[in-house]
Amino acid sequence: MDTFWTAMIGAGGTIAAALITGLLARQTSVRNKSYDKVTGSISEPQPSATVPKTFMCSGVVTGMQPGLSLWLAVEVGGLVWPKESNVDPDQDNKWSAPVFEDGAAETFSIALFVVDSKADGRIGKWLEAGRSTGNYSELRGIPGARRIARVDGLRLSHGTPST
Q1: What is the pTM of this model?
Q2: What phi and psi values does residue 157 have, to the nearest 5 degrees?
Q3: Contact indicator for 122, 63 with CB cutoff of 8 Å
Q4: Rounded CA gap, 127 and 143, in Å?
Q5: What is the per-residue pLDDT across 78-87, written as a single tens digit (0 to 9) for each?
Protein backbone atom coordinates (compact mmCIF):
# COMPACT_ATOMS: atom_id res chain seq x y z
CA MET A 1 0.00 0.00 0.00
CA ASP A 2 2.87 2.42 0.79
CA THR A 3 4.34 1.81 -2.65
CA PHE A 4 1.00 2.64 -4.26
CA TRP A 5 0.69 5.99 -2.44
CA THR A 6 4.33 6.85 -3.05
CA ALA A 7 3.76 6.28 -6.77
CA MET A 8 0.53 8.34 -6.72
CA ILE A 9 2.21 11.24 -4.95
CA GLY A 10 5.15 11.09 -7.35
CA ALA A 11 2.82 11.05 -10.35
CA GLY A 12 0.85 13.97 -8.92
CA GLY A 13 4.04 15.97 -8.45
CA THR A 14 5.13 15.22 -12.00
CA ILE A 15 1.76 16.32 -13.39
CA ALA A 16 1.78 19.50 -11.27
CA ALA A 17 5.32 20.34 -12.41
CA ALA A 18 4.33 19.83 -16.06
CA LEU A 19 1.25 22.05 -15.66
CA ILE A 20 3.20 24.82 -13.94
CA THR A 21 5.95 24.67 -16.57
CA GLY A 22 3.33 24.81 -19.32
CA LEU A 23 1.56 27.78 -17.77
CA LEU A 24 4.82 29.70 -17.29
CA ALA A 25 5.89 28.95 -20.86
CA ARG A 26 2.49 30.14 -22.12
CA GLN A 27 2.74 33.39 -20.12
CA THR A 28 6.20 34.06 -21.54
CA SER A 29 4.92 33.29 -25.03
CA VAL A 30 1.93 35.62 -24.60
CA ARG A 31 4.15 38.38 -23.21
CA ASN A 32 6.62 38.07 -26.06
CA LYS A 33 3.83 38.07 -28.64
CA SER A 34 2.27 41.20 -27.14
CA TYR A 35 5.70 42.89 -27.10
CA ASP A 36 6.27 41.90 -30.71
CA LYS A 37 3.06 43.63 -31.75
CA VAL A 38 4.34 47.00 -30.50
CA THR A 39 6.33 49.16 -32.89
CA GLY A 40 7.30 52.75 -32.43
CA SER A 41 9.45 55.64 -33.46
CA ILE A 42 10.85 58.87 -32.09
CA SER A 43 10.48 61.78 -34.52
CA GLU A 44 11.78 64.49 -32.16
CA PRO A 45 14.51 65.14 -31.27
CA GLN A 46 16.53 64.27 -34.35
CA PRO A 47 19.77 62.24 -34.07
CA SER A 48 22.85 64.29 -33.10
CA ALA A 49 20.70 67.27 -32.07
CA THR A 50 21.67 69.74 -29.38
CA VAL A 51 18.84 69.96 -26.85
CA PRO A 52 18.15 72.05 -23.74
CA LYS A 53 17.92 70.36 -20.33
CA THR A 54 14.13 70.23 -20.80
CA PHE A 55 13.03 69.22 -24.28
CA MET A 56 10.03 67.66 -25.97
CA CYS A 57 10.21 64.15 -27.29
CA SER A 58 7.55 62.86 -29.68
CA GLY A 59 6.77 60.00 -32.00
CA VAL A 60 4.32 57.29 -32.98
CA VAL A 61 3.56 53.87 -31.52
CA THR A 62 1.29 51.08 -32.74
CA GLY A 63 0.20 47.69 -31.46
CA MET A 64 -0.13 48.53 -27.77
CA GLN A 65 -1.80 45.75 -25.81
CA PRO A 66 -3.51 45.80 -22.39
CA GLY A 67 -0.99 45.46 -19.56
CA LEU A 68 1.81 47.20 -21.46
CA SER A 69 3.11 50.74 -20.88
CA LEU A 70 5.55 53.07 -22.61
CA TRP A 71 8.51 54.78 -20.95
CA LEU A 72 11.23 57.09 -22.15
CA ALA A 73 14.74 56.61 -20.84
CA VAL A 74 18.16 58.16 -21.29
CA GLU A 75 20.89 55.70 -22.25
CA VAL A 76 24.61 56.27 -21.83
CA GLY A 77 27.24 53.56 -22.25
CA GLY A 78 24.90 50.63 -21.59
CA LEU A 79 23.25 52.29 -18.60
CA VAL A 80 19.59 53.35 -18.45
CA TRP A 81 17.77 56.11 -16.54
CA PRO A 82 13.96 56.04 -17.02
CA LYS A 83 12.30 59.44 -17.25
CA GLU A 84 9.25 60.55 -15.28
CA SER A 85 7.21 61.78 -18.23
CA ASN A 86 4.18 59.69 -19.06
CA VAL A 87 4.12 58.40 -22.64
CA ASP A 88 0.47 58.03 -23.54
CA PRO A 89 -0.43 57.73 -27.24
CA ASP A 90 -3.51 59.58 -28.48
CA GLN A 91 -6.22 58.11 -30.74
CA ASP A 92 -3.91 58.61 -33.75
CA ASN A 93 -1.10 56.65 -31.99
CA LYS A 94 0.98 59.83 -31.64
CA TRP A 95 2.68 60.68 -28.37
CA SER A 96 4.58 63.64 -26.95
CA ALA A 97 6.27 64.04 -23.58
CA PRO A 98 8.72 66.44 -21.96
CA VAL A 99 12.11 65.09 -20.94
CA PHE A 100 14.37 66.63 -18.31
CA GLU A 101 18.02 65.60 -18.58
CA ASP A 102 20.69 67.00 -16.31
CA GLY A 103 23.36 64.36 -16.93
CA ALA A 104 27.06 64.92 -17.23
CA ALA A 105 27.64 62.75 -20.31
CA GLU A 106 28.87 64.55 -23.40
CA THR A 107 26.44 62.64 -25.60
CA PHE A 108 23.44 60.50 -24.76
CA SER A 109 20.55 58.64 -26.36
CA ILE A 110 16.84 58.84 -25.68
CA ALA A 111 14.97 55.54 -25.99
CA LEU A 112 11.34 54.48 -26.04
CA PHE A 113 10.59 51.26 -24.15
CA VAL A 114 7.51 49.05 -24.03
CA VAL A 115 7.24 47.44 -20.58
CA ASP A 116 5.07 44.86 -18.86
CA SER A 117 3.22 45.59 -15.61
CA LYS A 118 6.04 44.25 -13.40
CA ALA A 119 8.62 46.47 -15.11
CA ASP A 120 6.20 49.39 -14.85
CA GLY A 121 6.07 48.87 -11.08
CA ARG A 122 9.85 48.51 -10.81
CA ILE A 123 10.38 51.76 -12.72
CA GLY A 124 7.87 53.55 -10.49
CA LYS A 125 9.67 52.34 -7.34
CA TRP A 126 13.06 53.33 -8.81
CA LEU A 127 11.77 56.83 -9.59
CA GLU A 128 10.26 57.18 -6.11
CA ALA A 129 13.56 56.13 -4.50
CA GLY A 130 15.38 58.70 -6.64
CA ARG A 131 12.97 61.46 -5.69
CA SER A 132 13.29 60.67 -1.99
CA THR A 133 17.10 60.41 -1.95
CA GLY A 134 18.05 62.74 -4.80
CA ASN A 135 20.14 59.89 -6.25
CA TYR A 136 18.91 58.08 -9.35
CA SER A 137 21.01 54.93 -9.44
CA GLU A 138 22.20 53.65 -12.79
CA LEU A 139 20.44 50.63 -14.26
CA ARG A 140 22.11 48.12 -16.56
CA GLY A 141 18.77 47.16 -18.01
CA ILE A 142 15.09 46.87 -17.19
CA PRO A 143 13.75 43.30 -16.92
CA GLY A 144 10.36 43.14 -18.61
CA ALA A 145 11.17 46.03 -20.95
CA ARG A 146 12.00 46.10 -24.65
CA ARG A 147 13.47 49.09 -26.47
CA ILE A 148 11.40 49.89 -29.55
CA ALA A 149 13.10 53.11 -30.70
CA ARG A 150 16.19 55.18 -29.92
CA VAL A 151 17.74 58.47 -31.00
CA ASP A 152 21.52 58.65 -30.61
CA GLY A 153 24.13 61.40 -30.38
CA LEU A 154 22.14 63.97 -28.40
CA ARG A 155 24.04 66.75 -26.64
CA LEU A 156 22.88 69.20 -24.00
CA SER A 157 23.07 72.87 -24.91
CA HIS A 158 24.90 75.17 -22.53
CA GLY A 159 22.41 78.01 -22.93
CA THR A 160 19.20 78.82 -21.09
CA PRO A 161 16.72 75.89 -21.03
CA SER A 162 13.59 76.30 -23.09
CA THR A 163 10.40 74.28 -23.21
Answers
A1: 0.77
A2: -80, 155
A3: no
A4: 16
A5: 999 999 987 9
